[in-house]
Design brief:
The protein is an alpha+beta fold. It is built from five helices and twelve strands. The protein has helices at about 10-15, 70-85, 145-150, 155-175, 180-185, and strands spanning about 1-5, 25-30, 50-60, 90-95, 95-100, 105-115, 120-130, 195-200, 205-210, 220, 225-230, 235-239. The protein folds into two domains: about 1-185, Bira Bifunctional Protein, Domain 2 (BirA Bifunctional Protein, domain 2), CATH 3.30.930.10; about 195-239, SH3 type barrels, CATH 2.30.30. The longest helix is centred in the C-terminal third of the chain and has 20 residues, at about 155-175.
Length: about 240
């Protein structure tokens, strides 16, 4: 079930308000968010009525907490599949942003709720630029489906298609398809095996991404051949 709002504080907030009662697969979507959130306490800016802004509630109670990064993987893969269905080829910038060439088209914010050693619920917030053509300077390096394909997206009509793309990967995870998910995620990983610049603790260095571990840490190999794991927020991509 998809519930649409003309305006709301945050769809993730709305999902949290229904955490105890809503069935798995519930979706809350908005044409405008007054307090949209992104990763690392960033805000998510979006023009009213132009883009996909929604949250999906999953209840992966069968998934151990230490494997929660699979929810991030299946979500980013679903977004990429949806974009491919609209003739847009996207890559996954670790951990789960969607990029077209070197421009960001989608961001994901996942909030997990644990039940002991297992997941109890996952609130998946997705912001996907659809029909916006102009962005504020603070937005960085964005793009949109309209800018990439020349075609506008009918938000309310296309949202079920986007949700279904994520749920297909979720069902595969439920069925024991973790290896296939790992392979698909790495196949679409932005900068994989490319020499690029990164920054950690104020120090910049050249390295290449060799893999992402099951716990979500990224493995970087520097120019000396040393491989080191980094958690999210410990390393930054330098364009």
């Amino acid at each position: 079930m998809i519930t649409w709002f003309p305006e709301i504080d945050s769809t993730n907030n709305e999902a949290a308000r229904h955490l105890l009662t809503a069935p798995e697969g519930s979706v809350w979507a908005a044409h405008y968010q007054t307090a949209g959130r992104g990763q690392q306490n960033n805000t998510w800016e979006s023009a009213a009525g132009k883009n996909f802004m929604f949250s999906l509630l999953l209840r992966p109670v069968w998934l151990p907490a230490e494997e929660q990064f699979y929810i991030s993987k299946i979500t980013s893969l679903g977004v990429c599949d949806f974009l491919m269905q609209h003739a847009i080829t996207a890559a996954i910038k670790w951990p789960n942003d969607s990029y077209v060439n070197d421009r960001k088209i989608a961001g994901i914010l996942i909030e997990h709720h644990l039940g002991g050693s297992m997941l109890h619920a996952s609130i998946i917030g997705i912001g996907l630029n659809a029909n916006q053509e102009k962005f504020p300077p603070s937005a960085g390096n964005p793009t949109s489906m309209l800018l990439e394909s020349g075609c506008a997206a009918a938000l309310e009509t296309a949202l079920p298609e986007l949700v279904a793309a994520v749920l297909r990967w979720y069902e595969l995870l439920q069925q024991g398809g973790a290896q296939r998910i790992d392979e698909a995620y790495h196949a679409r990983l932005y900068w994989l095996n490319e020499w690029r610049r990164f920054e950690t603790a104020g120090r910049r260095f050249r390295a290449k991404i060799v893999a992402v571990q099951r716990n979500g840490q990224i493995l970087l190999q520097d120019e000396t051949g040393k491989i080191k794991a980094f958690a999210f927020k410990e390393v930054r991509f330098i364009s």
